[in-house]
Amino acid sequence: MLNNTLELQRATLATDSQGGITETWVSQGTFSARINPISAAEKLVADKVTADATHVIYAEAIDVRENDRLVWDSKWTFLIMGIKNPSEGYHHLQIYAKEID
Questions:
Q1: May I ask the CATH class of domain 4-100?
Q2: What is the pTM of this model?
Q3: For the chain, which residues make up each domain, given as ranges?
Q4: Within the chain, how many helices (H) and strands (E) appear?
Q5: Which of 10, 17, 22, 46 lies 20 to 30 Å from 96 when distance is taken between CA atoms?
């Protein structure tokens, strides 16, 4: 059951008024998802890509990339560490993410 709505954000680089480069996060839209914390047992068997992940997020097949971030309820932010396509048919995705401040 995809019972949460998340906002997908992607980093973009822009030139500021001083000629420097500033990273900003731009919304790519929202999608339905289910969020599960990763247990200690799951971390023991995780591969390197997902070893630092704190949550696995199940979602419909969407255009999501490593290093994008997800915002849930304007309170929690997650950095995407890895993405798996378990059905190999892009029916749904398992997104491994780390909660960040």
A1: mainly beta
A2: 0.84
A3: 4-100
A4: 1, 6
A5: 22
